[in-house]
Amino acid sequence: MTTQSVPRYCRHCDLIIEGEAEEFIPDSASGARPTEYYHPTCGPAQTPHNHRNPYAPYGKR
User: Fold this and answer.
1) How far is CA 59 from CA 7, 49, 52, in A?
2) Mean local confidence (pLDDT), 29-41
3) Is the pTM of this model over 0.85?
């Protein structure tokens, strides 16, 4: 039987990681959540900035 490594996917960009990876082990009482991997240069996606009119009802544009 041969041992093949499972490809690691970046949690942010969903691409296969080749080489270095940052590893995050989530807190889980049962240990059921898998380890998450990230590219060293990846970060969370930025949300678009929507300017709201403070004088309009409910802050509409």
Assistant:
1) 45, 14, 5
2) 85
3) no
The 3-state DSSP class for residue 20 equals coil
- Amino acid letter at 57? P
pLDDT band at residue 16, thresholds of 50, 70 and 90? very high
Mean of per-residue pLDDT scores for the chain: 79
Amino acid in the structure at residue 2: T
Give the residue from 34, 32, 28, 46 showing the smallest Cα distance to 8.
34
Q: DSSP label at 16?
A: B
DSSP structure string for 31-47:
S-SPPEEE-TT--PPPP
Amino acid occupying residue 22? E
User: Is 22 strand, coil or helix?
Assistant: strand
